[in-house]
Amino acid sequence: MNSKQTDSIELPEVSVSEYGDVRHLHLGTPWIQGSMRVKEPFELELEYVQRMMAWLLFVDPASVAKRYAVQLGLGAGAITKFCHKKLRMQTTAIELNPQVIAVCRSWFKLPPNGARLQVVLADAAEEIRRPGWEDQVDALAVDLYDHEAAAPVLDSAEFYADCRALLTEDGCMTVNLFGRSSSYEKSLAKMAEAFGEQALWAFKPTREGNTVVLAQRTPSRPARAVLDERAQMIEARWGLPASKWPRAFKPIVKR
Fold this sequence. Notes:
Family: Belongs to the spermidine/spermine synthase family.
Pfam families: Spermine_synth
Order of helices and strands: HEEEHEHEHEHEHEHEEHHE
Oligomer: single chain
Number of helices: 9
Number of strands: 11
Organism: Comamonas endophytica
Protein name: Spermidine synthase
Keywords: Polyamine biosynthesis, Transferase
Strand order of the largest sheet: 6-5-4-7-8-10-9-11
Number of domains: 1
């Protein structure tokens, strides 16, 4: 998508606030759309963003740096920076608002594009339908909200089917769902239509009301002992509070 195309879309103004050592991104409202601890710009500050990394429970930690991560919606760049800097992954973020990209580079320590990092100005729904994306992505993070944060901007069974088509055989999509319970249930049903109910896992909601849902391209049910072991390795290696995840993270449909 070029600048003329984005000019035709009404995009919210991007602003920045700080409280103590934490910097926040806003899209025209007081809603926090992303955060960064100023002294630790490449760590994940928000609990729900940490949980968006739950796909790590389903892969060999030794293989992570060889994998490909894609984010739909840049936010404050937290997941993009973490995958690029901490996990050392090939990383792409797709963002519709050029102001968001500019503010992330100026205020949120987002590195410039390079060999392992690409930030693409585009409409995510259109971009992922372009040839060449199929079966390429190991970790897809979807966090697409407008300035009102009432429900996901892209939230149809067709969109989730397009997301599934991007994934490798053992690839995962994680989605941030926020809002009323009716919105959550509708989103979950659309994901189940695209991925199948057996492919879906979900965390309990955070205190702020964010529920992270994970969808697998190929459904699997690792034993609790395996998840616990992986969680301990994730916490030791990358500093995420993963040892708590298996207690709050369950399949949507139990066998």
